[in-house]
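Lab notebook, design round three. We kept the backbone fixed and only want residue identities now. Task for the bench partner: fill in a sequence for the structure below.
Input structure tokens:
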């Protein structure tokens, strides 16, 4: 149990997931949204349909009701094209100890990123970006196995995050289609390259774990469509190279069903596979070695478990603020830099260097 005070901005699907995760740890949760109908929908529909009953200890409030209140953790679970504006307002008002921003961090033009970093440093707020797959149980197992027995010298890394977005709209039945939301606009942080940027981010994480550094160059192709008032990429295919020279591929789309959320790390002595929802109710990690010293584990999980590790980690950081975090702002910024480079590559037809220097302090 904890007396942590949490404010969740945005009463959509992700806001409900994170509210339930925080409540499972005993946090005092306040949910707020500019739309009163969204708060009502949370109380009467989304939360009870997912978790069995409404939690009467969750406080629902309009934004102006919270003026002057201080929270330990503030979560921004709104569309990505609102993240930088809301973050600036939260930091200027009563800055929390930790500000957790849902992925993707911002829009592909990176507008507001430098200002966020500077303002957070001035206020003493730690900013995290919610790429929750870095903290699931099977990811932690994969990291431990790579450190313990490894796969030898890494030769390539491939990641897929391909999922038809019908499931997203099923979780948001009040939306009639892509044009009703940021999802239908790559420029607003949607499309395959933004909404499914877990693929880029988990690729980056395993490259970091194995000592191959950041992505330095990107060659990308996008299948971009304009229809029914929306303009988005439905398929994003990236070929990337890291600081060490490691080559790999990343594929993301909003058309594949059933979904494929998979990563494979090839080494000279074997390989590691990582998979989300390998079968209903299980994630999977498998390490295969030529000498037979392999391991495999299916990790039982429910949908709330996808966020449990993330929330437990953030609450731990509040108690131990000097701990390192795989969710720190730099990781989310690095993913956005790769997205920006991929869009430039696809639209110019050339390989593009990832410009981390455009974000002052990212290289510090």
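Proposed sequence:
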């Amino acid at each position: 149990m904890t007396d942590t005070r949490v404010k969740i901005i945005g009463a959509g699907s992700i806001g409900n997931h994170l509210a339930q995760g925080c409540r499972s740890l005993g946090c005092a949760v306040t949910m707020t949204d500019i739309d009163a109908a969204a708060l009502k929908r949370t109380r009467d529909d989304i939360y009870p349909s997912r978790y069995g009953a409404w939690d009467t200890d969750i406080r629902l409030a309009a934004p102006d009701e919270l003026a002057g209140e201080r929270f330990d953790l503030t979560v921004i679970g709104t569309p990505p094209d609102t993240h930088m504006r809301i973050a600036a307002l939260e930091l200027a008002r009563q800055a929390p100890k930790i500000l957790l921003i849902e992925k993707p961090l911002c829009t592909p033009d990176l507008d507001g990123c430098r200002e966020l970093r500077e303002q957070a440093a001035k206020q003493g707020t730690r900013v995290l970006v919610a790429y929750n797959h870095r903290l699931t149980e099977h990811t932690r197992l994969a990291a431990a196995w790579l450190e313990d027995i490894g796969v030898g010298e890494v030769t390539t890394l491939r990641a897929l995050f391909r999922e038809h977005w019908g499931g997203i709209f099923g979780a948001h039945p009040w939306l009639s289609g892509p044009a009703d939301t940021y999802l239908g606009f790559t420029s607003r942080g949607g499309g395959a390259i933004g909404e499914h940027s877990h693929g880029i981010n988990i690729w980056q994480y395993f490259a970091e774990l194995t000592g191959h550094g950041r992505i330095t160059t990107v060659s990308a192709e996008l299948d971009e469509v304009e229809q029914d008032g929306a303009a988005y990429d439905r398929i994003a295919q990236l070929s990337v190279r890291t600081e060490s020279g490691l080559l790999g591929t990343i594929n993301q789309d909003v058309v594949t069903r059933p979904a494929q959320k998979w990563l494979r790390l090839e080494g000279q002595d074997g390989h590691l596979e990582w998979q989300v929802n390998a079968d209903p109710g299980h994630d999977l990690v498998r390490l295969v070695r030529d000498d037979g010293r392999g391991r495999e584990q299916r990790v039982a999980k429910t949908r709330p478990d996808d966020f449990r590790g993330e929330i437990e980690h953030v609450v731990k950081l509040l108690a131990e603020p000097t701990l390192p975090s795989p969710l720190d702002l730099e990781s989310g910024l690095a993913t956005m830099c790769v997205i920006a480079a991929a869009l430039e590559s696809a639209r110019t037809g050339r390989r593009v260097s990832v410009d981390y220097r455009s974000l002052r302090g990212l290289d510090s």
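Keep this in mind before ordering anything: The chain has a mean pLDDT of 95.
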